[in-house]
Amino acid sequence: MAVSLATSMACQNSQRHVIGDNESQVELRTMQTRVFDTTDQERTLRTVIATLQDLGFVIDKADLELGSISGTKLDGYALRMTVSVRPKGETQLTVRANAQYNLVAVEDPEPYQRFFNALEQAMFLTAHTGE
């Protein structure tokens, strides 16, 4: 009976941990993603490049066909940001930014907020949170 109880408790703790991880992944994805009311993917990608450069990033890779831009900011640390732009439905684009600090995923909302605030201003559009 004690073994059964211990096993049951371990499963519950493990399940809570997985649920917690799923919730934190959803929160992270929400921080990383904005939806824009435009279908002009090329203009959006070019604006992403300009925004990253304005924020001090050096563009490492830009693939307009794949809709992906990567840049690195060296300011006493290495912050790498990869941004993807994908169509969402008929009238919107999803922009998702993924930041890494020294090869570790950034979970702090501040770099994402700074990027999206600058991008919104550059595009003169209001972004919607979520996917």
In short:
The chain has one domain (2-129): TATA-Binding Protein.
Descriptive overview:
Helix 2 (41-54) packs across helix 3. Strands 1, 2, 3, 4, 5, 6 and 7 form a seven-stranded antiparallel sheet that branches. This protein is 46% helix and 33% strand. The longest helix has 31 residues, at 2-32. The model is unreliable at 2-20 (pLDDT under 50). The chain has a single domain, classed as TATA-Binding Protein (2-Layer Sandwich), CATH 3.30.310.220. The protein has helices spanning 2-32, 41-54, 109-123, and strands spanning 33-36, 58-63, 68-74, 78-88, 92-101, 104-105, 127-129. By secondary structure, it is of the alpha+beta class. A hairpin with a 4-residue loop joins strand 2 and strand 3 (68-74).
List keywords for this structure.
3 helices, 7-stranded antiparallel sheet, 131 residues, alpha+beta, 46% helix, TATA-Binding Protein
Number of helices: 3
Low-confidence stretches: 2-20
**CATH fourth-tier homologous superfamily:** Fungal kinase associated-1 domain
Strand content: 25-35%
For the biggest sheet, the summary is: 7 strands, antiparallel
Radius of gyration: 19 Å
Please write the CATH class name: Alpha Beta
User: Structural class, please?
Assistant: alpha+beta
| CATH fold label | TATA-Binding Protein
Mean pLDDT: 83
* SSE topology string: HEHEEEEEHE
**Beta strands, count:** 7
Helix content: 40-55%
Topology (SSEs and partners):
Layout: H1 2-32, E1 33-36, H2 41-54, E2 58-63, E3 68-74, E4 78-88, E5 92-101, E6 104-105, H3 109-123, E7 127-129
Helix pairs in contact: 2-3
